[in-house]
Design goal:
With 436 residues, this protein is mainly alpha-helical. It has 19 helices and ten strands. The protein folds into two domains: 146 residues; 203 residues, Cytochrome c-like domain (Cytochrome Bc1 Complex, Chain D, domain 2, Orthogonal Bundle), CATH 1.10.760.
């Protein structure tokens, strides 16, 4: 090839690259327009008592108030800070005030749930789980909107999201959505019962995968409905895999046991704590019996996918084991038993769960054990368990090394065989929880 021909080809390649870059920049910077949606069926916009009550129950199913209510603030008025690995996102006001949804219609609300777009076309941050709500049926969206419209308006403007100049931009959201979000099939009617009801609840309003999905460095996943478990990095808790019975999977348990766990926060040796305790307290304990049964049946039927067993290790320092045993005897044995066997209350239920063979203790990621030792372990207050026992925090009493030692001991004693915990693990998990 002659020098002139090579120069010509290089020139064409350079111009092509420039054109592609210009197209990409135009796509990134061009404002998003509201997606056209099919107008709501007028019969579904009725504000009759039955529709509003159905919408109220749907809000409970989705625990909408949990995120859209700031601590000490008015219900649904927004402003709660939601920690993410990239900064803090503040929830919006869902009441019909000018600072909330006053100018919205049912079609705008559907666009937000199904397409992840605001009324003006602005792309919403995926801290609002539209990867799940895109699977909510239009009739349920309209009923939920009718309920929100019935609430007393509250003037409350949420603080701006603290995500930095670039991560909080519409361009960044365009890229994220291109990688991880496709609107779901537009259902017109929600499953009322049967085997599809549980899947509809888990994947849709209950948005279980918002916590239980394994996320990559960009906060996404190849399957945003995956329930394979993942570290809730900005909170310091681990949402266990619901596909692995050795973690949070319930495939080997009876449906009645699963229902009891969702309804009361405890079942057998299992007691929910951390973020899941909030879900039980504010949402699942208030579900109708049929929906609890449907969800439990679906979770039990999930395919089993076990995590690889960690390689056996003898790398537990003898000094750490000895110090951990001493700390356990001093601070833990009185409640959990000298052999980690737990203690039952007068009602025959576990007041303090066994630690021997405890799945939380044995997680490959020790986050939940460390968080419980650091900041205490408290189950939800429910109608079936109004005054649950709790575990006191040791963050002011034990050093990071001591917490690592006692955690290492608990994960290795009484037949347990989990990997050791280091002081660095404790430090990193403490920092990820955003607590001093």
């Amino acid at each position: 090839m002659s020098p002139r021909a090579r120069w010509s080809r290089s020139k064409v390649a350079a111009l092509t690259l420039v054109a592609l870059l210009l197209c990409a920049a135009t796509w990134l910077l061009w404002p998003a327009r509201p997606v056209a949606v099919v107008p709501s069926n007028t019969t579904a916009q009725r504000d009759d008592a039955a529709t509003i009550e159905r919408g109220r129950y749907l809000a409970v199913l989705g625990n909408c108030m949990g995120c859209h209510t700031a601590r000490g603030g008015a219900a649904f008025a927004g402003g709660r800070g939601i920690a993410t690995p990239f900064g803090t996102v503040y929830s919006s006001n869902l009441t019909f005030d000018a600072t909330g949804l006053k100018d919205w219609g049912a079609d705008d609300f559907w666009r937000a749930l199904h397409h992840g777009q605001s009324r003006d076309g602005r792309l919403l941050n995926p801290a609002f789980p539209y990867t799940n709500t895109t699977h909510v049926a239009r009739a349920d969206s309209d009923a939920l909107f009718a309920y929100l419209r019935s609430l007393a308006p509250v003037a409350a403007t949420a603080p701006p999201n603290d995500l930095g100049q670039y991560l909080g931009s519409q361009a960044a959201l365009k890229v994220w959505r291109a990688l991880y979000f496709t609107p779901g099939e537009a259902l017109t009617v929600a499953p009322a019962d049967g085997p599809l009801r549980g899947a509809y609840l888990v994947n849709g309003l209950a948005h279980c995968s918002a916590c239980h999905v394994p996320r990559n460095a960009l906060g996404g996943s190849s399957d945003m409905l995956s329930l394979a478990g993942g570290l809730m990095a900005a909170q310091g808790w681990y949402a266990p895999s619901l596909l692995d019975p050795a973690e949070g999977g319930v495939q080997a348990r009876e449906v009645a046991e699963i229902v009891a766990l969702l309804q009361t926060g405890r079942s057998g040796t299992h007691i929910v704590t951390g973020p899941m305790a909030e879900v039980v307290q504010h949402s699942t304990q208030h579900w109708q019996a049929d929906d609890l049964q449907a969800m439990a049946t679906h979770l039990k039927a999930l395919p089993v996918s076990r995590r690889p067993e960690p390689a056996p290790t003898d790398a537990r320092p003898a000094q750490a084991m000895a110090l951990g045993e001493r700390l356990y005897e001093q601070h833990c044995a009185q409640c959990h038993g000298a052999q980690g066997q737990g203690i039952r209350g007068n009602d025959g239920q576990w007041a303090y769960p066994p630690l021997a063979g405890n799945s939380t203790v044995l997680h490959s990621v020790p986050a939940n054990l460390v968080q419980a030792v650091l900041f205490g372990g408290f189950g939800p207050s429910t109608a079936g368990r109004p005054r649950p026992f709790g575990m006191p925090p040791y963050v002011l009493e034990l050093s990071e090394q001591e917490i690592a030692d006692v955690s290492t001991y608990v994960r290795a004693a009484w037949g347990n065989a989990a990997t050791p915990v280091s002081a660095l693990d404790v430090q990193q998990l403490r920092a990820s929880a955003g607590r001093p």
